[in-house]
Amino acid sequence: MHGQSGGEFEGPSxxxxxxxxPGVPHKGWTWVGIEDLEDNKVTCEMCEAREVRYAHYMxxxxxxxxxxxxCICAGHMEGNLARAEERDRRMINAARRRANWLTRxxxxxxxxxxxxxxTDGYQVTVFRDGSKWGGVVAHRATNDRRxxxxxxxxxxxxxxxxxxxxxxxxxx
Length: 172
Known about the structure:
Elements: H1 2-5, E1 30-36, E2 42-43, E3 51-52, E4 54-59, E5 67-69, H2 71-78, H3 81-101, E6 108-109, E7 115-119, E8 122-129, E9 132-139, E10 145-147, H4 155-171
Helix pairs in contact: 2-3
């Protein structure tokens, strides 16, 4: 968020990194995704100064690469700082919820003995898949089911992957 990110290193007024390179567009970028890098922080590819945890992926028709950027640079690039800050806030909130997901109250054993929880109109269940763990997130009203795309070595990894799938489904 703007107040917390130390904007003096970011944005066009800082004149750092690609902001000062000829031929690199400063406006007209499109946001194409965001990712929580957790402990694998990287340097913003636009200002080349700010360490980034929540990576905004930005593309431009006149630039050959998609850039991984921090919130402030992404906001200036797309011309909407408030939108970029809102994306950051959603990621921060999701990271907090994810950190509490495994210990959240409501987890119980299903009739088949699988860890399951009802939340936000969904039923999340993880289950043994051979020697690994799989999972499914089902919308309770429509019974639309989405299975985890792969299996995981531990039940907790499967539960965290199910949380990520739940977030994705709720965004649609």
